[in-house]
Design goal:
Length: about 230
C-alpha cells in the first residue's frame, strides 16, 4: 500500500483541477476499500484523478470512463494520447480499464459490482444527473465523490434537484468543492448540511465572475489568493 505522500509527486505534474488535498481524499477512499474492489471514474481528462485513484493500491481496478470527444472543451484523441502516456509513465496502465463512451451508455450496459464512484464529467445539469445515477449501483455504505460540487452551476443544480431529495444518498462533507456522499438514508440534518453549502457556492460563482472580469484584487478581498478558479 502506498502512502499519499509517496504517490503525490507522480500525480502533481499531470494537468487538471484536482487540488492536493482533494487527491488525498480520492487516495484515502480507495485505501478504505476491500481488496479486489472496482472504482468507476467519470471524466479522466489527462489522468490526474485516475492516478490519484489507481496509485493508492495495486489490488483495485479503476474503470476510467471518458469518451475523449473531439472538438469539445477538453480535447479528443490528443488528450487521450496524453492520458495514456501519463498512465504509462506512472506505471498504472495495467490497473486502469479505459472505456471510451459516455457514462450513461456505459452505465446502461454495466453488470459488474462497483465499490466507489468518482464523478467529474461534463458539468451541465443533465450530464451530471446521468453521471450521478451511477450511485444507484453502489452497495449500502459505499462512497460517491463529486468534484466541482459547489463551484459549477450545473453540478450544484444537479445535486439540489436529484441528490437533495434522494432517500439513499447522504451528504458527508467536502474538501473544497469535492463533495463526499454515502449510500445510506439521509437524515434531515444531512439534507440541511448540503443546503448549508449554498452560500459558499454563491461565493465561488462570484469569484469566478470577478476573475473573468479581471478583477483579481476584489477576488483577493473575498479571500481567494489563487489566479485559478476556486476548486
Ligand atoms: C473536468 S474534466 C475531468 C478532470 C479529471 N477528473 C482530472 O482530475 O483532471 C471532464 C472530463 O469529462 C469528460 N466527459 C465529457 N462528457 C463525458 C461523459 N458523458 N462521460 C464521461 N466523461 C465525459 C471530458 O472528456 C473531460 O475529459
Amino acid at each position: 500500500m502506498n502512502t499519499f505522500d509517496d504517490v503525490w509527486p507522480r500525480i502533481e505534474p499531470v494537468g487538471g483541477w484536482l487540488t492536493r488535498e482533494q487527491a488525498r481524499v480520492l487516495h484515502d477512499a480507495v485505501v478504505a476499500l476491500p481488496p479486489g474492489s472496482t472504482v468507476v471514474e467519470i471524466g479522466s481528462h489527462q489522468g490526474r484523478s485516475t492516478l490519484a485513484l489507481s496509485l493508492a493500491r495495486p489490488d483495485v481496478t479503476v474503470v476510467a470512463v471518458d469518451p475523449f470527444r473531439a472538438g469539445g472543451k477538453f480535447g479528443g484523441p490528443e488528450t487521450r494520447g496524453v492520458f495514456e502516456a501519463n498512465l504509462r509513465r506512472a506505471e498504472v496502465r495495467d490497473r486502469v480499464d479505459h472505456v471510451g463512451e459516455p457514462s450513461g451508455d456505459v452505465r446502461r450496459g454495466w453488470r459488474r459490482p462497483v465499490d466507489l464512484v468518482f464523478v467529474d464529467g461534463k458539468h451541465d445539469v443533465w450530464s451530471t444527473r446521468t453521471d450521478l445515477l451511477w450511485a444507484q449501483r453502489l452497495p449500502a455504505g459505499r462512497v460517491l465523490l463529486v468534484h466541482d460540487a459547489f463551484g459549477s452551476v450545473g453540478v450544484t443544480l444537479a445535486l439540489l434537484l436529484f441528490v437533495l431529495p434522494s432517500r439513499s444518498l447522504r451528504y458527508a462533507g467536502r474538501v473544497g468543492s469535492l463533495a463526499r456522499f454515502e449510500r445510506t438514508r439521509p437524515t434531515l440534518h444531512d439534507r440541511a448540511a448540503l443546503l448549508a453549502q449554498l452560500p459558499w457556492f454563491a461565493r465561488n460563482v462570484g469569484i469566478k465572475v470577478l476573475l473573468r472580469l479581471h478583477l483579481r484584487p476584489l477576488a483577493r478581498l473575498a479571500g481567494h489568493r489563487d489566479t485559478a478558479d476556486p476548486y
